[in-house]
Design goal:
Its cofactor is Zn(2+); Mn(2+); Fe(2+). This protein has 156 residues and is an alpha+beta fold. The chain is 48% helix and 15% strand.
Length: 156
Amino acid sequence: MVFQKERITEIGKKLHQAGMKLTPQRRATVNTLLKYQTKHLSAEELFTLIKREEPEIGLATIYRTLDLLAELRIVDRVTFGDGVARYDLRHENQQHFHHHLLCSVCGKVEEVHEDLLTEVEEVVMHKYGFKVQDHRLTFHGICSTCRQKERCLEQE
């Protein structure tokens, strides 16, 4: 809970620096993103969760808030090939977007927070003269749980 209050204060400062306020609707959105930060929620899913505690909030407000938070790099918009935009709260002092592991069997999404592309960025800079500001990487494959189930089925 203390961590959540600190993150909200930090996000409030970023909004203030951009000439914006941490309105009750923005606070409710950030609180929900913090509470469900491993879920990769869509705007509609966020709306459903927020509406329980803030019944007067509208879906358009959620979309505007998410657009603003994405513009300020507080959240990242991510898609996993299904056409649905989901939102991922950036971790404090995160230089790059974190990576994801997407299971093609069960759909589970895991986060990888190590920056695995540092050397690749250096190659891109030296070979092409291109300074990478951010990158997104999603590994598609089969998670350990589904692989274990496959092994069990093969042994039967």
